[in-house]
Amino acid sequence: MKSRFALLAVLVVAASPLAAQGGGGGGGMGRGMGGGINVEQMTTLYSLTPDQVAKATELKKAYDASTAGVQAWMTKLRESGDMAAMRDAPGAADSMKKMTTAREAYNAEFKKILTPTQAAKFDSVAAARAARMRPAGGM
Known about the structure:
By secondary structure, the protein is mainly alpha-helical.
């Protein structure tokens, strides 16, 4: 049962990580652009410079390319509305691992373009999001 909750948590993180930051949904970094990464929201949240925006946009393109197949699969399952099918689908765990790996790589590269102050805020937002994702009472 714990593994199902963990998988669901990964799905939520992969599908809409910025929703917890006050963004998400619609045509932003959530479902509209896939992968939960929205350069416009990141620009606002971290006060990115034009040079940083250009670099973040390139990172987003690379992320999209590396996760396109998994994103299409997840979108199809989300549209079915059947969370059990999403959790139990063949290859779900492997696909979630790919998404997590891609997201972690994106985050690491994104942090490299930030100033120390911006990076500290990024870490703070990520920690707050992770705390909200943990079930009450821990696992």
